[in-house]
Amino acid sequence: RKRHLAGLVSKNRQKREVSETGHMAFSKTLLRWRLMGEGYSSQLTVDEQRYIFRLAFRMWSEVSPLDFVEDTSSPLEDIDIRLGFGTGRHLGCNQRFDGTGREFAHAWFLGDIHFDDDEHFTAPNTGSGISLLKVAVHEIGHVLGLPHIYRPGSIMQPSYLPHEAGFEMDWMDRKAIQHLYGGCKGRFNTVFDWIRKERTAYGEVVIRFNTYFMRDDWYWLYENRNNRTRYGDPVALQVGWRGIPTGGVDAYVHVWSRKRDDVYFFKGTQFWKYNQDQDQAFTQDQEGRRYPRRISEGFPGVPSPIDTAFYDRRESRIYFFKNSLVYGFDVGANSLARGFPKRIRDVFPPVVSGDHPDGNVDAAYFSYTHNAVFLLKGTGFWQVVGSRDRWRRPFLPRNGLLPRKEVDTQWFDICNVHPAALRM
Amino acid sequence: EKLFHKRDHSDVQSGSSHQAELITDKFTAELFLSRYGFMKPVNWEEIQFHDADDADSPFTDDYLDDVDVRIQEGASSQNPRVTAQDVGPTPAQAQEFTSALEEFQRVSGLPVTGVFDEATKTAMNKPRCGVPDKEVELSNSDDSTAVDTFNETVRTNIGGGNSSEGDIFNFNTTDASNDTNTNDTDDFKGFGDVINGTHDANTDSKMENMSVNVHQNEPNRR
Fold first, then answer.
1. Separation between Cα atoms, residue B127 and residue A160, nearest integer Å
2. B6 touches chain A (CB under 8 A)
3. ipTM beyond cut 0.85
């Protein structure tokens, strides 16, 4: 038995390394976990236990570059994190549980998490007992390398606090895990602010917006006031945006003027018009046009596929980006504006020489929060100089691009989860 | 099966033997603080055994009258031969306990009094994670097992002559390789630090190996 255990140690040892911060951490981003068959709880169904653990792992995945997948078939030595319930002497562990009260669980550096089945573990939102979800999130934090944190509100507090409705990981906990594993980075297909018009109780029309980031087949709602994504995101694209193509889109454009209020999604050589009232893509609009339509039909002179696009309300133009060129499209004239296409560098010159995306922009995004346009490429972005910037610094070129910054320094914690976790 | 009678299992019972031992006094509080890293565990390398004929020995116990340091961990409150209360803390140890208590009070958001008061007792008895709050420092480790149990070999001088072959220091013991050790009285449920020592009087050397099983569950230690 000791030789077998020693063998497990040697196979697992290379998975950990000292991260750049000097702390121990997993050296890979996809971690496999399993609820051990000999360690089921007697208090919840197996399916409940597995669901809670899936959710716990997903919560960490939502705030870190780590992905977790439940693996019930691989050899045990390939499992990174093993979970189980036990009482007293349990699961070959050298640390006894103490019975009902005080210690409810512990975690070992090789990835084992043990829960004291003498405690009254309950499912989330039950209101009584000890939330298994909360304990699991805490112990997973230890496995990932976090120590106890004494800050009120931290999930890594050593003492258990009774059920809080919908507990989540706050800013400091997120930064703690990102200190070990880094932030979440990646390219986006498109970013946009979705406009909604609502009427107050007094009949007044107010404009509300929400920010969305899209990547491949999923999307996030970004809460600007909270500097994070919505809890529980990402969501599968088809859930929130019915009728738009799978695999992601190239661009989103909202043509919003006195006369028009149209939303378009672009992918490949086609585009879709979105029915804001019905919350799904049109198959046929009020004018009788069927969708998807060819870009060349709806926007003559614009090539396809495009890299990205955005609508400039100041000039009533849609700027389409493709490679190193930008195509200014006059929506009123329904044709390319005079002089286009032009080089992106000429329309959006660099403020600092050499600091420019050049071409192949991933997303062009007008933000109502910042009242500015951003060009995103890779993991970085450039902010377009606005009128307020030029009022303060008149030497800035019109539509100039300010120096590059990392996306995750402006929009935080937009993290992938494993595809298996997309549908809980 | 845990006994219950109601349909919704709301009256499920735990056996009284499965209740965690409460922190009720300074001794159990000290064990708590040691377990979770607020105090250093007993460093067995500091144990000095002197000749049993030493008339200055304060101990009267036959087995332990050659031990001149207070045994903190692993001693059983039911052991008639030795208890921590029998020997009392040294001033340094009392200060260490006070400092550890203050640290615990500080991180727990309690008034930092250095006194084992009711609020501190309540806080210690709250449900908590079994991972220590602070690293437990040890001199060396042998991580040949997958559960992070390591044996620390402590070399001590043992006075010869008065010990018999096979004498076992009478502490609670658990053997890491034997999960069903009946000697484990487990008086400190969940605390687990134990020693297991034997003395072989036939050896010429006055050096004695004491194997000490100390476990820690710091997830960031290899």
1. 6
2. no
3. no
